[in-house]
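Subgroup meeting minutes
Present: P.N., E.W., G.H.
Scribe: E.W.

1. P.N. recapped why we're keeping a running log of single-chain structure predictions: easier to compare across weeks, and new members can see raw inputs and outputs side by side.
2. G.H. added today's entry (149 aa).
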Amino acid sequence: MTTTPIEAVDLFSSALHIHPDGDVRATGRRMTGGDAGAWQIATFHVESDTEVHADHWEMHPEAEEAVCCLAGGVRLFLRPVEPGEPGEPGEPGEAGEPGEAESVVRLTAGTAAIVPRGRWHRLELDAPSDLMSITLRTGTRLEPRTEAG
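Output recorded in log:
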């Protein structure tokens, strides 16, 4: 029987891609795109808002995202849903209601938030932090933040 040696993976320089067939592969991290159908688990040590793209909104059309704060502290901003923009059905307020104000979720060490599929969001740091993101990256979009939002 042939076995593949098991090696440690540096989660701060690689991402794990979990494929529908059960395969798990260590690969380079990507902000957009990714292996079709593969969930990405990415861990980051961040020390500034620049490192978390605080000046951009991000949206994942194919899946929800778990944003996890492992150490430190971060604010997760959820952009209001624009009139005519679809929200998550069945959960009032979770995906946002048209015309509502930008909402903020504070994450501290050991906490996480689930961002609904298709909801624009961004991060700002309260302190240097270790973060983990779990989502399907397929179709991920980034949009520059304007002064209005």
